[in-house]
Structures are given as structure tokens and as C-alpha cells.
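Here is a protein:
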Amino acid sequence: MEYPYLYETHMHTSQASRCAVSTGAEMAEAYHRAGYTGVIVTDHHYGGNCAVPRSLGWGEWVDRFCAGYEDARERGEKLGLDVFFGWEAGFGGLEFLVYGLTPEWMREHPELREPELCGGAGVGKPEALYALVHAAGGMMIHAHPYREAPYIDGVRLYPDCIDGVEIVNAAHHSPLSHYNPSFDERAALYAVRHDFAVTAGSDAHGVQIPGGGMAFGRRLESAQDFCRAVLEGEDCLLTDGQRWYDRHGDPVDADRVSE
């Protein structure tokens, strides 16, 4: 294949995400068995469905939050699986994937727990988080922007404070979770309309991974390298675990993929 390096860009661990059921090590093993080159751990952060008590001091909170990532990274090193760090910021069901920053950076920014940077609808300001992330050289992607679910307070779009859009979320193509492929179809049209960078991921919360992600022609070096590849529109394919897509969300012929 022209794109032999498959990366998961959206996954959770039970150490930090209340809705997840598998540890970082278990997730690393599952992705290795499934043939992935690497994963980016994106647990739910302070304003989302996080499993870490908010009563903790910031330093201890960050350590506990990063436990799933560290667990996955340790197991990944033994397996030959790349494990990179990220997180999913939540604003009352509105969610953004943050890439390219580090646990050390997070520890130095206790303001991430302030309502403006992680509050619910009418309180939090995604544009404030975007400014902070951008100033540090990170990337912010709107996760599943058109998903409809009880925990989401309607579709809210912020085209002026994101770097791109998750246009393929494998949970939308799997009966295991939020099945509705039209969510992705609308996200792809939104990305094309604004000429956004795009990503694809599984949104996996356990070892029954739906198989989403992004396939590249080379091995990525780091989370920062992933950001560069996405923002510069590096050649890649997106997948929902069943079909392959180009960066516009259009299906790619299977014969072309296997050339």
C-alpha cells in the first residue's frame, strides 16, 4: 500500500475518561494487534467527562490525567507502537481535540481549569482556549461537529477558532456507538466550505475499536509532526474502519488503495 502507516487520532483510556472501559496499556495492545503504527491518546479533559477528581491540586490532577497516556506509552514502547499525547477539551458537550502540546506544558498552565477555558454552554469560550493553544504552537480540531446526542446541547460551530475538523469519526459508522454516517457527511461539507484541515479517528473508548484513523506514506515522528502533516495537507487517507476517504471526505476506490 502507498499509505502503510496507520494512526489513531482520537481515543480514550479508563484512567482519565469516565466513559472509557479499558486502560491505556490495554488500548495500546489492541491497536498493536489491529496493525496500527501509532495512536494519539485524547482523554476527556477538565471540562469534559473526565474521571480525575477536580478537587485535586493542579499538579496532582495533571499527573492523574496523564496516567492513561503514560500507561499506553510504556506498553507501546515494548510493542513498537508510537504513542503521542493530546486531549479532548469539553464545553458542555461541544468538544475539541488538542494536539501538539505536552504534559509538561499542561502542568505549567493551571488556567486550563478556569470556566472560560473549559466551562459549559454560555460560560466557556472556545476562542480563549484556541488563543492559548495557538500561542504554544498547538493545533485545535473540532471533534464530530454535527453529532447529535443527549449530552450535546445542539450543534455549535466556531469556524474562527479552529484549525480543522474531524470529518471521519468511526463511531458514526459503527453500531457500537453513535451510528449515523450523515454526521460525517455534514462535517466534510463544512470543512470544504471553509477550506479547513481535516482529521479522522475512531473515538474509541475500549478495545473494541471501530478502526478509524489516518494513513500516511511515512512514519510520523511526534505529535508535533502530526500537526505539521495535517496543517500542511500532507498526502494521506482517512478511514472509518470500513472504507477509505480522501481529504474531502470522498470515498477512494479500493483498487487505488491497494496499488
The domain at 5-257 is CATH 3.20.20.140 (TIM Barrel). The longest strand covers residues 82-91.
